[in-house]
Predict the structure.
Amino acid sequence: MSDNAVIAAADRLRITEIFYSLQGEACQVGLPTVFIRLTGCPLRCGYCDTSYAFSGGQWYSLPDILAEVSRYHTRHITVTGGEPLAQKNCPALLTQLCDHGYSVSLETSGALDVCQLDPRVIKVMDLKTPSSGEQDKNLYTNLDCLNSQDQVKFVIGDRADYDWAVEMLRTYNLAGRCEVLFSPVFETLKPAELADWILHDQLPVRFQLQLHKLLWGDEPGR
């Protein structure tokens, strides 16, 4: 590989899609947002709804990504996947977006280290529940690096997931660290049932539904 090719590869990321939509979840729900969906993921969660991002995609340079997102009149950017941190150039992308004045959030599985990321980035970490099949991938040291701007999300498929999430909430004092989100897996748990559990136990968490799915279903790029 030539020196020029090495330099060119150093600022590139494989992207499945860049699109403009409403933020469908987390504390920024409802805000017009540009989404940058990176390709690839080392996890295979049972409830995954973005398996189309496991492979394929196109290579973009960092300047090309910045040029694309600048087409939209919003300051809110979400970098997601797949698992965006599986690509080594993701942290550089996050920093450059912050440097350009965007409010940047990262949707990550929590299986990869988030402690060295730019502190301006809002981390939305999906702590994997037992029904995901990927609970053993959780990197619990990540919890020490969360602060009040960050969020931990539990995707809950059944009562066992809920009880485990409550245990994590209390063991790690998560509500004292950051915002905590509980979200149901529609196929296996009625949203009202999860809401009733939260209210019965008087949990200091935010119940959430995926707004984009209520509006557009599972249509990619929405």
